[in-house]
Amino acid sequence: MKLVEAKKKKNLTISLCLPTLNEEKTIGKEIIIFRSELMERYPLIDEIAVIDSGSEDNTLEVARNYGADTYLASDILPNLEPKRGKGENLWKAIYQLKGDIIVYVDADISNIHPRFVYGLVAPLIHREEVKYVKAFYDRPLAFSGNVRASGGGRVTEILVRPLFSLFFPDLTAMIQPLSGEYAVRREVLEQIAFPIGYGVETSHLIDVYHKYGLEAFAQTDLDKRVHENKPTQALGKMAFGILQTFIKRARALGVIEKAEHETILRQFQARQDQYEQNLIEIVEEERPPMIEIEEYRKKFKK
Amino acid sequence: MKGITSLEKKLSGLEEKLKKYREVLLANLVMIGEIPAPTSDENRRVKFILNRFDEAGLTDSSIDGSGNGIGVLSGKDNSEAILINAHADTIFSAKIDHTMQVSSNSITGPGVADNSLGLAALVTLPYILENMEVELNRDLVLLAGVKSLGRGNLEGIHFFLDNNPFTIKGAICIEGMQLGRLSYSSIGMLRGEITCRVPESYDWSRFGDASAILTLNEVINKINDIHLPKRPRTSIVMGSIVGGTSFNTIARDATLGFEVRSESQEVVERAGETINDIVLEVSSKTGDQVELDIFAKRTPGGIPYSHPLTKCARSVMETLDIEPRLAPSTSELSALIDKNIPALTLGLTMGERTSKTNETIQIEPIYKGLAQLIGTILAVDGGYCE
Asked: Does A149 touch chain B (CB under 8 A)?
């Protein structure tokens, strides 16, 4: 209730955007819970919009049935050539939705809870300097029936964290750089470019960091997030998209050469409630081709 | 029964008005249903329910000595109370994935009908009544009872009934389904387990013949041969069987879960004695250890069909076009009957696949179910049911 009062006092409007593609299994529950808890009981958000990439299942019907505003991404800004991807939906939401703050929440979360929204908007309501709030979790993987509380985030650990460690060490402070849940002020969203595919989260972090510095970010612990675990091949596609976005930005910002001097990998580990950064020095030393070694040439008479 | 006409007027259009509360009710249902609550481990679910009572401004809400969650919506005259009860436990282990799936017309998940919907109605009721500006004369005591099912043996509600400070004039137990259910009497019941164990010092000369499953099979055959009378109606339900570990090892133990149900207490007791004799006989014949453990009993009783409370409920159902299905109960109703409290059990919606992990309820009939519940509460509150 305090949060709702603070929001009113600051005269802010908040829009919730759920980007979807074939999400009929989870979308209904998300909308019911957000509408009940954050519109009917505690009026924190002003609109809930589903922006869909062209689902072939009943996603839009279910969403409409539970009272969300539903849009097809291709119907928004129809004069622009349509593109298909989650980033497209997030970008078009800036045009379509009216909020001063837009909260993005993935539609495939099965353990949805109102904290997914209030946890993200609270830092923006209370702190002027915060512009971009990112979620993090102890992410469990759902296994046939049983839920186990560990693992996940493979693309983060294998690709994004090593890349950030090399080129943008400050950004390794993001515990879950790829999480699909974040809340951002409109004034920031309208100033940054949106890759339409897998690279959208990575590019946001780099661009917001470049424009506003690390202090523009806040992170919220959303506890746990249960969603379908993706096969390794799908992660390969995702990594490829992220890498493209990343290289484009690293080149534009002239940080490619920086990699030669960085030898610290920055990882995170969770110890009960505490998250701590783990700095690991990894120096990849090299030996020259054997032919350049004098003793070798002598021995084999080369 | 006078005044019931004005009540009927109140009921007209109620079903439609209740649609407004769909999101709040279903959000409660989903959130409650996703908190596992196997019998005797309902703590987390009850805490959530208490939070909801607190949020609804029920200042007297608390968790009692047995772990029951209790909320009190004060009436104008708080010398008497109406009890609404929904059991908080489920038959599902905490290891089962409790995710609820919401589609346009239905919700699926373990325990969604039994009894997450009952609990959701219980916690949403104060919100709805406040919103509709309904002020009751009597206190409305909302009880989320623990340790109700199986071996729990109604421990929660028994504790509440033995220790509460209220003067309860009538009680309504709510269950997720089926809409139309009207239980006003309890039948005699005896619930137990028979466990067969092959002794550790196993005699290998009985190769192929010794097995706890075979011994249990012998017991089952003999129980099946028990002659049961057609009147009073009696049945023995062999509900579950667990035993053995793999294809090629001798089963060391096997357990049968059963229930004897009858309209006559005498028949229940006689059947219980016969089962005890069977157990002793099979045990001495096979040399295996056979044990009978009876952990729940109910005595038949209840209010008559013509009791004003039953009449009121039937009249409310008729007004709302609900076909009453009369069925005796062995659940919390019997604890209330034991205390001479006029009580009913009502169902809230239609559904299917009871007790399976994909238990499903329909959303649309819920409004009718809720209207029926509120109508019956208003009838009891108006004093039409005594």
From this structure: no
